[in-house]
Each structure stands twice: as structure tokens, then as C-alpha cells.
Specification:
Two copies of one chain form a homodimer.
Chain A (H helix, E strand, L loop, with lengths): L38 E5 L7 E6 L2 E4 H6 L5 H9 L6 H6 L1 H15 L6 H5 L2 E3 L4 E2 L8 E4 L3 H11 L15 E3 L5 E3 L4 E2 L2 E4 L8 E4 L3 E2 L2 E7 L11 H4 L3 E8 L2 E2 H7 L13 E3 L6 H4 L3 E2 L18 H6 L1 E2 L2 E7 L1 H5 L5 E7 L7 H9 L10 E3 L14 H4 L7 E2 L5 E2 L7 E8 L7 E2 L3 E6 L3
Parallel strand pairs in A: 6-21, 8-16, 9-26
Antiparallel strand pairs in A: 1-2, 1-5, 2-3, 3-4, 6-7, 10-11, 12-15, 13-14, 13-21, 14-16, 17-18, 19-20, 19-24, 22-23, 24-25, 24-26
Chain lengths: 443, 443
């Protein structure tokens, strides 16, 4: 624990851990106390039209209704109007200033003692009665590979002699994923069929994936973005980050091993990806920023286009990430989900700003609602590995579950639940909401 | 030349080579005679709102205006209404039946002797005065690698001992490209900067690409598409193809060589891709279908999910593809573009139907307006190579141009022009229009 006197100051009053909300359960809520205020798209019970909302405790504040009720003025009103639509792309495009104004105003509306309580109460829905949607239309989805312990662990399985390739410490490695198959938490994922080839087989066969895996990742929502041909320099990169989520990059390891050379993963990933439905803002996570961990002795410094003093000082994030499993048998026996992985975003070798600057460094455009994935974030120690490929060493060491079952890879009916928690001394801890999905049998 | 009696019959009267149009120049037009009728999005002179149009000779028929003038009924009217909007996604989503009805009706309207000539004349614009746009909002862009001679040639540069990897003849290799940076013909392309590392350098440096290349590809526009989790079987795959274009998949070879392991090309491709602006329909290309070329002796047959009798019989396309260069010096000297590559779509190892079936085989969804690229299509012989990487053997053998210049890779001010021509005895030949763009210096 850091000494209390050495704690960095909280960014503003919206983070005050003493701040309480009048919304029932908000002050006891692990993920969504008043210090969080994440944005999402939901459909209230009995209604068809999705609209923007803010999670507060076990409730959702309907932004369209609150806007209509006249609760916002100025920059906050502009942001609330943009966030009232059927998707949050226009809101993400606004950038930090209106988003901050809206946060400040929402904090005041929802704080205990607010004179707007009576009006706002009529805009609240119990979250349990609502359906959560994808928060934005995802134009482009790029998955990075910045979890260095994951890259090392996986590299060891695919390339035992050469786990970490020579470019890894120079290039924030990434590739284009499939945006169309990203779904919000709760949508079931069908096990893919594909070409499987065991090393000693003469030819591949087409069959349901036998090595289905999860990947524990941080998702990054892009805000304003850049024009084609106009790179975003490091010093401006954070301006284009509109928020964060959890991302489960489901992976068919057997399909991947056979298909991925020379152009990378394709069908092994594009059958589906799951994200948590709430966009946790950079403002909410501001107290959990930290210096970029020192590179190990002997690692090269980032090239100048990826180097920025402010980013070195506070470009990393300290957020605990967890992956849990709940099998059909565990559900039947009433057992709670079992934790497979506990990691932390501080294990990213490259910061989010470096990912944005690199992505645009050749001129590629990023646009509001684009999604970046961090790649699997594993902690260095066992118990911290973010995928079964790593935990079971490619299926060699099955993991034992409290139900008496074992898992090398995922089975039909298994549910994977990702959770995140940001906490530090002197600040209210916040979470991301669940990123959860269950595996359906192959068609 | 095939014997005239053995020529396959033309699909319908819209292909009759004797059919003439009343539109000036249409009957002499290399690309857009009345037998073609491709769809696109254009802005007429002095107007702001893009709308759908059909290329006929050197003119564009304004579909919104023609629809408004009452020229369509029934299924053709449904298609014309969908094609009148600012992007063709809704039209692509309709599938073949309304598209065919619209083609039949357009052929009648534009045919010499049509009683609708007077009405339709008022809906024509000179193409030279119009601005062509991207024909659809591209949701997802996937680039394949089905040009087997290209895969072999390139494999030899990157992996001399192992040019064609073991999966190539089983898997239609593809990867997700960047949809946001695809632009219509005519938009200039800025040379990217990126990490370059020559093999004997200790570290990479960040600098303008020194090995900028083009790639000669066929583009495929997706029509109706499929729901996530519901693969498209081979027998239905063609139903989801709404048309074709030319695609220049600009490639930064030096960036690519350093970044592409282990997750594939990223910044080496996503700075920009150029497509021809007209969607040439499957109907227009029907006379140029051909049997899938026999696989070389010893090659494995496609796995059952990629095998279909009709596809074997007529799933391939015979379209001549060309890439030409025009340098700043050639422009100054008034020299015509110089042909670098002359290839043919018959050199695709996998058919378009196989690409669609494979893409969806694990459950991934395709959607109206998605774009597939074939990958570079090289012919086996020199003169048929579809990229400078192949032509100059990785820069070793510069190509001599009529201006007295040489090129290992592209220089600033160079323009690459892709063209396509479908021709066979007994049918009117058609083209795709140009896919052209000029290289701007790095920023």
C-alpha cells in the first residue's frame, strides 16, 4: 500500500469517495457507484426503441427522458442529446469536453440531496428489467497483442524456440478483427466449425472446434478519430479515447493453428467476440492511471513516434481483470462461478495512447465507435493467465473445477464471465459490469 | 478460340451483342455498352446529394430521377428505389431477383428504339461532369489470397524455402482488412510512414515507406448476407454476391516484412485501398463464367464444405486484368500509361463462391456492402505478375519504363491504373471502368 500522503490527488469532486447517491443500492454497488457513471444503450421493459443510458447502482438513468425533462443545459445538454440516440457514436465523436460536462452534471443530479431527485427518479429503470445493447455501431475493430506475458506464453506453444518475435518490443503488434460479429454481454456464442489438422494427420478435416478458448482483454472505444492520411501524434492520442470495456476475444485454437500462416487469425476469431455493454469513461478511470511500468533491462526504448513524457508518467492503467467459468454442471449444483484468471491492465507492454498513435502512424483513420482490443492480458504468474491455452499449457494440464469436472478447453454450455475492478487507496472503487456469454453447441 | 457451335448460350436478351443503345457513344464504349449496366453512386455537377446511377457509354443515368419520372414498375421499381439512395447498401441487400428485373428494364429503356428515350434523356448526365463516390458503405472488408501464382511468387521472397505453405491448397486464406480506408478511384493515396528494418540493421527506424507497391485484385461486393452463426453453404454462396469491381490493395512491403509476424499485415495495408467505382453485376458477367480450372495433379480436392458441382462447372470467371503505370515524367512527356501486368481472374485457385462459403463456415456473418478482395491475381508467366514485388523480384530487377525511368517500387507522383475486360466470342465485351490513384509524398 502506498503511503496516504503520497497518494495522487483525485481529479475532481466527482471522484470523492464520500460522495453518495440517492439512488437505491448505488452506494453499495460494486461496479456502478456514483463515481463511475458509464454510458450504454438499453431498451426499457415493454419498449422497442433503444436509447442511451447511464448505469447507477442497479438502475439505469434514461438519458433521452432526462434530456426531455430539461435536466441539462450547455455542453452537458449537447452531450446528453447525442447520447440519447439509438447508438452512442455521435456522443463518442464529441470528445472529452462535452463528455466531462455531462459527467459533472449527472454527478450533481444523482448525488444525495440533489434538488433534481424528483425529476430524475421518473427517468430511472431497474437495470434487471432492461435489455442492454451494443453501445455503438462498431465501424472497425482492431485487436492488439500488448499483453507481453500472454505473447510470451502463446509464442511458446506455437513457436517453442522463438516465443517473442524480434519485432515485439518495437511494434505494438495488432491486426484487423471482424467488427460485424462483436456482440454485447449476454448473447450466446455458437461453437464454430472449421478446418482442424492435428500435426500428424495427412489432411485437415472440417469439424466443430475442439479447442475453444476465451481471451481476457481490455476494450477501448475510439472517440473523435482522425482523417485518413493524418496520423494522431502521441500527445493527442488520449483525446481520441472515449472509454473502456471488457472484451472476450473467443478463439478457436485448432482452427487458428492451421489457418494463421501467413496472414494471421481469421475464422479462428471472427465467429464472435463479446464485450461488456457499458462504456467506462476515461474520466471515471482517471484516479487509476499510473506510470508506465519500467521496461525490463535491455529492452529498447520506444521509437520517438511512440514516446511521450506524459504517457510514460501516467499512460498506464491499474485495473484488476478476472475471468470466471460457470459450467452447466456447476449451474445445476448451484455452485458459484470459478475464477480461472486474475490479471491487471498494468501488464500491457504498450499503453492505449501508443496503440492509437501506432494505428494511425501510417495514415489509417480511426472513427467514432471503432473498437480496439488490448489482446489477452496475462499476469506473469500462474493464476494470472488470461486464456486456457496458457493455463492448461495448450491442453496438457487440465484445470480442475469445484464441480469435480476438468477443462482443457471450453465445452458446450460453459459460460465465461469477465469482470474488472479499479481500486486504490483513497478512491471509490468502480467496476465495468459483466462481459458474459455461454457456448452453444456447433450447428 | 472455341468452336462457335460449342459456345455457351448467352443468358438472356440483355447480352445480345447486336443490341444497341440510343445513348451517344454507348455502342462504341469499351467498358459500358448496353450489355454491362453497372451501378454506382455519383454526384451530378452542381449538386450535393449523392445518388445511384447506371453507367451507359460516357453517360450516367440518374436512377433517382428515372424512378421519379415513373420509368419503373414492379420488382424493377423496388430495386430502382433502393438504388436511388445515397449509398447502394439497400440495393445490394435485395439480392438477385429485383436486381435482374431492374437490369432487364434498364436494358429496354436504354435500347435503340425505346419509347422511353425522351423521358430517360432528361435523366442522363455526362459522366465526365460527375463525381463518383464509393458505391456503398463498406461494413467489413476481407482480403483473400487466392491468386496462387502470386502466393507462390511472394512466398518465395519472404520464405525462399517454403513459398506455398501447407495450408494453401486446403484453406482459402484470407484476413480482415481495414474498411475505413477504402476509397473510390481517383482519390490520391499518401505514402505511409512506418517502421522499416533492413535485415542487417540492429533496430528499425520510422520513416516513409521505401518499398511502396500496388496489388492487382478483383473486388467482390456482398449482397444479402447471412446471420451470425448461420453459415452459407456452397450451393447458396453465389446468391450473396452482388457484384464485382477492381481493387488496388496498396502495400508497403518494408513495413509489412517487419510487422507481419505473427498476426498478419496491418499498417502495411491500412493506409489506403482503391476500388473502381462501378459495381459490375453477376448478370453482366454471366457470359464470362467458365469451369473451374483443373487443380494440378497431386493437389487435394476441396473439403466437402467447399465442393459444389455447379461451382466446379461454372464458378470461375474469365476476365482480363491489367495494371498500368503513369509517372510524373511520363505525364510531362505526354506518354501513355505503361502496362506492368496483364493477368486473368481464371488464375484464382478458389472461386468467389468458395471464398463466401469459407468466410461464413465458422458462423461469421457477411452483410450487404461488405467487400471481399481476391488477393493479387498474377498469371504464371512474367508480364502477368500483379505487383512490383513479383515483377522486380523484391526490387532486384528494376522495370524499365518508356520514359527512360526505372522502377523497383513506386515513387511519389506515380499513378497506378487498373483495368478489366471481359470478352469472349459471340458476346459483347465489357469493362469495369478504371481503378486509378496517384501517390502523394509522405506527410
Amino acid at each position: 500500500m502506498r503511503d496516504a500522503q503520497a497518494l495522487p490527488a483525485l481529479p475532481d469532486a466527482t471522484h470523492d469517495p464520500a460522495l453518495l447517491s440517492w439512488v437505491p443500492d448505488a452506494n453499495r454497488h460494486a461496479d456502478f457507484p456514483i463515481q463511475n457513471l458509464p454510458f450504454g444503450i438499453f431498451t426499457p421493459p415493454g419498449q422497442d426503441v433503444p436509447r442511451g443510458g447511464v448505469a447507477i447502482g442497479a438502475s439505469i438513468l434514461d438519458l433521452a427522458a432526462a434530456h426531455h425533462a430539461g435536466l441539462f443545459t450547455g455542453a452537458a445538454e449537447i452531450a446528453a442529446a447525442a447520447a440519447s440516440r439509438e447508438e452512442l457514436n455521435a456522443f463518442l465523436a464529441l470528445g472529452a469536453t462535452p463528455r466531462r460536462a455531462l459527467r459533472t452534471r449527472l454527478s450533481a443530479i444523482l448525488a444525495a440531496g440533489s434538488r433534481d431527485q424528483h425529476t430524475a427518479e421518473r427517468c430511472l429503470h431497474p437495470a434487471a428489467d432492461c435489455t442492454l445493447r451494443l453501445p455503438a455501431r462498431i465501424g472497425g475493430y482492431t485487436d492488439f497483442y500488448v499483453g507481453i506475458h500472454h505473447a510470451t506464453n502463446v509464442g511458446r506453444v506455437f513457436r517453442p524456440d522463438n516465443p517473442l518475435l524480434p519485432n515485439y518490443k518495437y511494434v505494438p503488434i495488432g491486426y484487423h478483427g471482424r467488427a460485424s460479429s462483436v456482440r454485447a454481454s449476454g448473447t450466446r456464442v455458437r461453437r464454430p466449425k472449421g478446418q482442424l489438422k492435428v500435426p500428424d494427420a495427412e489432411a485437415p478435416r472440417f469439424a466443430p472446434c475442439e479447442r475453444l478458448d476465451y481471451e481476457l482483454e481490455l476494450g477501448i472505444w475510439i472517440g473523435p478519430g482522425n482523417a485518413l492520411g493524418t496520423p494522431v501524434p502521441m500527445g493527442e492520442a488520449e483525446h481520441h479515447v472515449a472509454g473502456y470495456c471488457l472484451l472476450n476475444d473467443w478463439s478457436a485454437r485448432d482452427i487458428q493453428a492451421w489457418e494463421y500462416q501467413p496472414l494471421g487469425p481469421f475464422l479462428s476469431k471472427n465467429f464472435g467476440s463479446t464485450i461488456s455493454a457499458w462504456i467506462v469513461t476515461p474520466e471515471a478511470l482517471a484516479p487509476f492511471r499510473m506510470p508506465q511500468p519500467a521496461r525490463p533491462e535491455g529492452d529498447p526504448p520506444p521509437l520517438p513516434y511512440l514516446l511521450d513524457e506524459a504517457d510514460q508518467c501516467q499512460g498506464a492503467l491499474g485495473v484488476v481483470l478476472e475471468a470466471l467459468i460457470l459450467t452447466a454442471d456447476m449451474r445445476k449444483k448451484g455452485l458459484p462461478p470459478y475464477r480461472l484468471s486474475r490479471s491487471n491492465t498494468c501488464h500491457m507492454y504498450w499503453t492505449v495512447a501508443q496503440m492509437v498513435a501506432h494505428h494511425t502512424s501510417g495514415g489509417c483513420d480511426l472513427n467514432p465507435g471503432d473498437l480496439l482490443g488490448s489482446g489477452t492480458i496475462s499476469a506473469p504468474e500462474p493464476g494470472g493467465f488470461g486464456s486456457l491455452l496458457e493455463i492448461t499449457r495448450g491442453g496438457k494440464d487440465p484445470v480442475a473445477l469445484p464441480s469435480g469436472e476438468t477443462r482443457r478447453f471450453l465445452e458446450d454450455g460453459d459460460e465465461i464471465i469477465l469482470r474488472a475492478r479499479a481500486e486504490r487507496q483513497g478512491a471509490a472503487s468502480i467496476g465495468f459490469g459483466e462481459c458474459r456469454a455461454r457456448i452453444l453447441p456447433a450447428a
